[in-house]
Design brief:
The complex is a heterodimer. Chain A folds into five domains: 2-72, Phenylalanyl-tRNA Synthetase, Chain B, domain 1 (2-Layer Sandwich); 86-290, Phenylalanyl-tRNA Synthetase, Chain B, domain 3, CATH 3.50.40.10; 298-367, Phenylalanyl-tRNA Synthetase, Chain B, domain 1 (2-Layer Sandwich); 389-589, BirA Bifunctional Protein, domain 2 (2-Layer Sandwich); 608-704, Ferrodoxin-fold anticodon-binding domain (Alpha-Beta Plaits, 2-Layer Sandwich), CATH 3.30.70. Chain A contains 21 helices and 33 strands. In chain A, the strands form nine sheets. Chain A has a seven-stranded mixed sheet, with helices on both faces. In chain A, strands 4-15-6-14-7 form a five-stranded mixed sheet. In chain A, a hairpin with a 2-residue loop joins strand 27 and strand 28. Chain B folds into two domains: 11-103; 120-363, BirA Bifunctional Protein, domain 2 (2-Layer Sandwich), CATH 3.30.930.10. Chain B has eleven helices and nine strands. The radius of gyration of chain B is 40 Å and the shape is elongated. The two termini of chain B are 67 Å apart. The chains are: A alpha+beta, B alpha+beta. The interface between A and B is large, with 90 and 79 residues. Bound molecules: zinc ion (ZN). Zinc ion binds at residues 282, 284-285, 289-290, 292-293, 297 of chain B.
Chain lengths: 706, 364
Amino acid sequence: MKILSSWLRAYLPGLQVSDRQLADDLTLRGIAVEGVFDLGPRNGSLFEMDITTNRVDAMNHYGIAREAAAIYDIPLLPLAAPLPGSQPVKQPFPVRIEAPDLCGRFTARVLRNVTIAPSSGQVAERFAQLEQKAISNAVDATNYVTMAMGHPTHAFDLDKVEGSIVVRRARPGERLKLLDGTERTLVADDLVVADEKKALGLAGVMGGWDTMITPGTKNILVEAAWFDPGSVRRSSRRHKLHTDASHRFERGADFAAPPVASAMVSGLILAAGGELHGDPVDVVVPEIAARTAERPAIPLSLQEVARILGRTAEGKALQAETVERYLAALGCRIQTASAADYRVSLPSWRLDLEREIDLIEEVARLHGYNHFANTLPSFSGSVVELPSAGKENLVRRKLLAGGYTEAVGSTFCSASDAAKFSHQPNVHVPLGNPLSEEVGCLRPSLLPGMLAMLAHNLNREAADVRLFEMGTVFSGTTDRVQERPSLAIGATGFAIADHPHFKGRPFTFYDLKGIAEEVLSGFATRSLYFDAFPAATGLMPVWLQPGRSARLVVDGETIGFFGQLSQDEAQRRKLRQEIFLGEFDLERLYRHSLREPAAQELSRFPAVVRDFSFVFPESIAWQSIADRLRALNIAELRSVGPVEIFRDEKAARKTATLDTGHFSLLLRVVFQSHERTLRDDEVQGWWERIAAALQQLGGAWRDKVR
Amino acid sequence: MTIPELRSYTADDLEAAFGELASEVHRDATELDTPDRVEAFRLHWLGRKQGRLKRIGDAWLKNAPPEARKELGIRFNQLKQQIEGVLSAERLDGRNRESVAEALDITLPGIRPALGAEHPLIRTMQEIVGIFQRMGYSVGVGPEVETDYYNFEALNFPPNHPARDTQDTLIVARQEHKPLRDRLLMRTHTSPVQIRTMENQPPPVRIVIPGKVHRNDAADATHSPIFHQVEGLCVDENITFSDLKGTLDHAMKELFGSQVKTRFFPSFFPFTEPSADVQISCIFCGGKGCRKCKHSGWIELLGCGMVDPAVYDSVRAKQPGYDPRKISGFAFGMGVDRIAMMKYGISDIGLLYSGDVRFLEQFA
Ligand SMILES: [Zn+2]
């Protein structure tokens, strides 16, 4: 909204400050001046304003002048509307309000023998400065008055009006051609200004085409009315017509304004010729007057002002006379109920003021927010940590230390991704108004987003990527949506990049498994294992490549799935590099407490290391070997680990060192006691038991195979 | 080999003659680049019979008057120490010189452990939350899918408020059959957690709420349908507007440095009254005016206000302690994305949600 400083000054003869100072002071009181543009010598400035929607009263020159008068405590001139004397008429112009719940007031003035001409003088000058398009004196007059005092009015070509003015609900299906040239079909909830035969305009939104002012207009009816904000809003929405008038009416216009606005419009039109016929007609609905202009006074106590606002920069509560002065300057009438209690009558133009707190806000605003002290409150409550805060920190810390970068992905995914990555089949939640189909559903998994981010990097020649995301995933139905925290990890390219000092190596399944193990090691768990299922079982997610993926189970509960992205899915997404990814259910993980580290006593006796070089058939998994050796229950067995695994690339050829379908394993076991140095004979005994166990599993000494 | 001449045994002449010899040792020492030359140097100066030191000593001491002998002795000793110093340094150095082939080019890049990078949003959010935790605030969270009731109605949004329009708010599908208040939507702010917190906990309350929020905004350099907020709520007896000002002034100084100033403007939010927008003095120009602050010297950063009594009315059925005549409080909310973008000079909000490692690894 544009405001002229010269126009403001016309209402404020006592205003001493510069335009720039005025702009700053208004802004600090919530009447925001966004820009100040110099209009040249003696023309003042153009203010570009940004008025909050609750302050419709300040969306015009007089309203802003009123604020300035209150800020500087200077007089504000009344709105002048000089009118020539009127010709007597036998009967006032007939006006009927048939929808008194939607139209609280309707004033009409009859102007005859008017001259339709271009605007001149002050109107033309101010229009030019505001870059407002001038049309004709009659049309400009209504716009000018809106800019002056904020009340929308309308001028009808009286000769096109048939009989009385009737303010009524539209007849369902009734048609009305509006000033913008469009024809609208109305519904019963639309309020129209009509004559006896037809609708003349959509009340408070836009006038009609048939009764508009034309160069040939001779007689005019000036409408200045008060329409119900809700009704105007509904019509404006329904017909997608957001006009200056609807903007103001739907925020609550000044119930007392119509007679003044009508007089101003009439005076401006008559300046070019014509005469006023009869007294103004003013139909008022008392029930609406009682709810607006004449609403009851509200209480305000100084104690409450101090309780909410605290101390001023001088360290005191606001004084009674200061509070009184601010409220009076805003147009409130104050009655003193007792020493520190008032009853405050509210100005008709401030429908936003309804409660004591509204008045307290006005007092704070006019005093200037920055003239209050900065204090810190004391606190009597206790501080509580979120139960999962420490766990979330630990997971994040381990991943960051492990070389994974945190990412934040989209909350949404496509319906097909939602179906594919959902943990429960076919359960996902669509949005009602998505930005596009690609983001049409709430994500049931972090993985579609993770894959999108990996692809984003690969498309930008960032080939080595390790990411994680911790975020919310959604399940359930559109009736009931469940949320749970989830962790996704995604990686591709090299785990260790080539370096002048050594050769790098690609990221593998075991890197992903390793970081999962590392994260889990921070939690107290009783049992933990990884397993895999053949594709045919349908137990592994379809996005994983069978044979290169695993499930993670902690204390009997599935925590997550991870592994290599399936070839189908990689192809569909045009991902040519191997992708490793996994998702972990943090809600389930967080049910475990954090592992409390406990120091073990270190043995003072030497450890004995023994290696076993064995060949096994491929059907033997490492886990079964480890389990079997643990089952020997050798108390002094400190550790068992694979040192080297060899699979012969040339298997099945003559030069092969291993039989087809076999692999060789170098196994290292360590024995140690806390009580004594181990004897050779007992180590020899264990060695034999272990060798026998390995043979029972199908293993053979490697040397003997060769 | 010539013996240098000693003009007399006066202090000045001794000083000059021994200075000459010290320079000679120094000159010889610069040429010791092989073990052979080191050995030659040793023999030349310290050889038992033919050593230069021995011969000069013999020559000069022979004619020395008794009173000058002591001074001569001290000076020869110093010279000998200088020569031995050269030799001991050379011996160490010589040992290293034998392994020239194994010398490292220490200018080659080091092997840096590959650490992950913190996300700038998470980092900023944790920083803000930490500031309020140190001021006695507990951390709260709430669901990202909310009902209209918690997101709007309980926060005193009128039924026809523009924010409730589907043009601004992303909604869950198929809600039409439900009453307005039960309809599910993506929360547009973290403020619903204010209501959830007060429903669960009587006053006093001090809570800081970080979280992800959504709006129906097409993405561009400054808009994203996804963004992050940190919300705060403080309710107790005698909490005032000046407490709100002091709290946020303190928090902004912790976040941006003690030189930062704050100023408060009247604003309008349905759930606070009085409501304020807070500006901080420009962190780029210190308030003088620059392009980043549009030459105003100030940057708008957050919204806040005293909790509107209507908000307490929403929770009083469950927690009668929130009686607006007895307690008061303030709430504030800030956009984490904007703060992170400002702190780290990020010009495109989309980068924050791209997972682009070239961008993210700058924060490692
Ligand atoms: Zn600046």
